[in-house]
Amino acid sequence: MDQDNSSEDESVSPSEDPSEEELPCLPSGQSDGETMELLWQLRSQRRQSSPELPETVTRLTAPDGSLLYLVGTAHFSDSSKKDVAMTIRAVQPDVVVVELCQYRVSMLKMDENTLLREAKDISLDKVQQAIKQNGLMSGLMQILLLKVSAHITEQLGMAPGGEFREAFKEAGQVPFCKFHLGDRPIPVTFKRAIAALSLWQKARLAWGLCFLSDPISKEDVEKCKQKDLLEQTMSEMIGEFPALHQTIVAERDIYLTHTLRQATRCVEPPHNAQSAYSTEVPAVVVGVVGMGHVPGIEKNWEKQLNIHEIMIVAPPSRFGWVLRAAVKGVVVGVLGYACYRAGGSIGRALLSLPAVQSLLETLRPPCALSQQ
Length: 372
Fold this sequence. Notes:
single chain; alpha/beta; 6-stranded mixed beta sheet; 6 strands; 8% strand
């Protein structure tokens, strides 16, 4: 796919370590063009025209004949990792698109043990980073959702996103395959979600997330791959927080559909292979998304989509800023008193801490920040 045609997609190099790729031994003495043609033909031979794929795979067709194999996954699932690997090996795609954005791309290159430790450890640094990146309310909501992820991680002993790492690894073993990040940036999602909730709904949601303690088994996670159970769960959430479902699920369905359609376009063969192929050929794309997004992507696949509407983040209201400033003002007052009691040198040392500086910076009104 021509990368210039997909400005919203984020591309990642599938393999930076050549030792990880399982490409065949190529004859020596060939030119670059001959090597590319050989690899193109090799991929075409490996590609199955009518593959037998898992039940979690949905096939969609673009107007130009390009094919999308959409793999619906459970984010904590060994079975999903196998489904992704089987699909990519069978169809030998031109592009692999995953339900990640640039803010979560680090999980692709971290090993399972590191991810497991990171998912369980919600440190002060993580809280500060989330608030600095997303604002106070959205940052705290992100931390609460990280707590939910940590709860599942602790219950299952399994790091999240294994299917995305599997897709990244398998894409690196397919000649000419590109790897795209297809999800909406997470700060936009959190800010729009918080803005859509009333103060009472925010309190109820935070309370529920804070006291989440129900045990979760691996069988429960695998059941999430069944559409009927998933739709029942989603219906329950819609009844309680319809605005939250709209921003976190429905809007991301639209965004994911948009990026998947951008990827599912005709591709141009290598120059030396054009004698055997037409100028452009239909693309084969594998999309890896949570099972909850599959119905929405199917529903939106042939619709006209307005992507700009779901990227707008409304500025914080004056009342919201005053409320946050009041809370932070109390904290700063306590901090100032502590500095006074501790003495001048210790007080200055406390005020120079990054966490304190970040807190003071957030106290500045939005108009003052915009004038910088």
